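User: Please run a holo structure prediction.
Assistant: Happy to. Please share the sequence and the ligand.
User: Here you go; the ligand is FE2/S2 (inorganic) cluster.
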Amino acid sequence: MEGKVKTRRSLLNWLLTGSLGTLILATIYPIIRFIYPPDKPEAVRNTIVAAKVGELEKNSGKIFKFGTKPGILVYTSGGDYRAFSAVCTHLQCTVQYEPTRGDIWCACHNGRFDLTGRNISGPPPSPLEAYDVAIRGEEIIVSRRTG
Ligand code: FES
């Protein structure tokens, strides 16, 4: 009988020690990874397929993922494609296309950009980064400008 109690007690001790160890590791590991991030730099994508031809209606926009940041593709009412970084130059909110005004709007502090990416009202201090747009077959390709 006493042997059984001893076995249960040692099993409970083992489980509690293991749980405590796991808890400590689960707490410390993310802190260490935050303090010492991996050496590998983030891969930078310079070209991406932002949409398919025919996916957007005229006078509309689409947010796409460009690496780790959002981009915005606008199909103007005149039938042109324009692409920009969708990261507002004020406090980095994601902008959106506003079809009623035909411009790009940041809802965070009512910042506005025209369809060249230029900041036209509100607090954004600088234009959106403009990207090049090309159509290859059925794909709309967006590229970062170099140089
Ligand atoms: S973050 Fe866009 S206007 Fe402030």
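The helical segments are 2-35.
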